């Protein structure tokens, strides 16, 4: 067995289905994932800050099976690591605690998560791993140790809906939903963005939707000023998505956020890159 792309015959079938769906005009979003066929998802987050960098990599195997009310998605975390950065290390510790376990999600026919089997036990393991960082022997100062302990306590108290949302992010980002019904063309859009200090803003830009062999491609670019900043502080966002229209899956997404503050020799730049890629496991 080896990991590879979609077989040529499958690509041709998807392309034909995509063209038929688009020719028919707007329709209800569909979700028809491949059944009993392992999918591999690779996620990479990279952060480049002045004087520091972080990298967080996650690899998962996902298998969908049809049920009377929708689908059962079995997700196994194969890899979860962080190359650098305290934030990345914290989440890596939580994900690593679930590594090797198969997490079962119950989905409706549209791909929305209705429940997670053993949600409480899974959440406890995630929180325990973060709490262990605060009580372990790693070289962290008292302030950071207190922050980790407080974070673990806060996460333990999270209501079921928030836990489901956080754990469910393993799958929710894969479901195309209304994206699968988009029509080719270019239009004005607004993209969300977050400044390095956490402030949120909305950026005006342009989005282009095009049909390629086997997929619908959505590319968007937007830029604007940082909230509460002067004219020398800007955010630029580029987003690329490749959608399997026939199956209702986001096969690939890449978002690049560049933040520039200042000008000339004093200019500081921060960059965040988020990548998600799905491939089919074939023999």
Labels describing this entry:
283 residues, 12 strands, alpha+beta, 5 helices, twelve-stranded antiparallel beta sheet, 25% helix
Brief summary of the model shown:
This protein is an alpha+beta fold. It is built from 5 helices and 12 strands. It has helices spanning 8-23, 86-96, 119-135, 142-156, 160-172, and strands at residues 2-4, 39-49, 52-66, 70-84, 102-108, 113-116, 185-194, 200-212, 215-225, 233-244, 249-261, 268-282.
Structural commentary:
By secondary structure, this protein is an alpha+beta fold. It is 25% helix and 46% strand. The protein is built from five helices and twelve strands. The protein has helices spanning 8-23, 86-96, 119-135, 142-156, 160-172; strands at residues 2-4, 39-49, 52-66, 70-84, 102-108, 113-116, 185-194, 200-212, 215-225, 233-244, 249-261, 268-282. Strands 1, 2, 3, 4, 5, 6, 7, 8, 9, 10, 11 and 12 form a twelve-stranded antiparallel sheet that branches. α2 (86-96) crosses α3 and α3 (119-135) packs antiparallel against α4. The radius of gyration is 21 Å and the shape is flat. The N and C termini lie close together (5 Å). Mean pLDDT is 82; it is low at 1-28.
The shape is flat
- What does the radius of gyration come to? 21 Å
Helix/strand order? EHEEEHEEHHHEEEEEE
What percent strand? over 45%
In whole angstroms, the N-to-C terminal distance is 5 Å
Extract low-pLDDT stretches.
Answer: 1-28
The total beta strand count reads 12
Count of discrete alpha- or pi-helical segments spanning 4 or more residues: 5
Major sheet size, sense and barrel closure? 12 strands, antiparallel
- Fraction in helix: 25-40%
Q: Overall mean pLDDT score?
A: 82
The chain-level structural class is alpha+beta
């Amino acid at each position: 067995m080896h990991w590879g792309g979609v077989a040529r015959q499958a690509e041709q079938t998807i392309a034909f289905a995509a063209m038929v769906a688009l020719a028919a005009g707007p329709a209800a979003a569909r979700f028809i994932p491949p059944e009993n066929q392992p999918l591999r998802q690779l996620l990479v987050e990279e952060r480049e800050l002045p004087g520091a960098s972080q990298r967080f990599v996650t690899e998962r195997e996902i298998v969908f099976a049809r049920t009377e009310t929708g689908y059962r998605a079995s997700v196994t975390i194969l890899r979860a690591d962080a190359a650098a950065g305290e934030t990345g290390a914290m989440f890596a510790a939580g994900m690593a605690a679930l590594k090797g376990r198969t997490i079962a999600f119950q989905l409706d026919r549209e791909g929305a998560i209705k429940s997670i089997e053993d949600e409480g036990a899974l959440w406890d393991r995630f929180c325990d791993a973060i709490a262990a960082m605060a009580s372990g022997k790693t070289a962290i100062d008292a302030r950071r140790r207190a922050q980790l302990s407080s974070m673990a306590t806060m996460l333990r108290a999270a209501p079921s809906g928030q836990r489901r949302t956080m754990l469910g992010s393993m799958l929710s980002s894969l479901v195309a939903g209304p994206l699968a019904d988009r029509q080719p063309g270019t239009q004005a859009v607004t993209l969300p963005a977050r400044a390095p200090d956490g402030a949120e803003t909305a950026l005006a830009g342009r989005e282009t939707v095009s049909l390629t062999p086997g997929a619908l491609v959505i590319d968007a670019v937007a830029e604007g000023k940082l909230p509460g900043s002067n004219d020398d502080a800007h955010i630029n966002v580029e987003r690329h998505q490749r959608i399997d229209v026939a199956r209702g899956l986001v096969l690939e997404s890449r978002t690049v956020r560049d933040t520039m503050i200042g000008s000339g020799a004093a200019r500081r730049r921060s960059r965040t890159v988020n990548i998600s890629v799905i491939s089919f496991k074939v023999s």
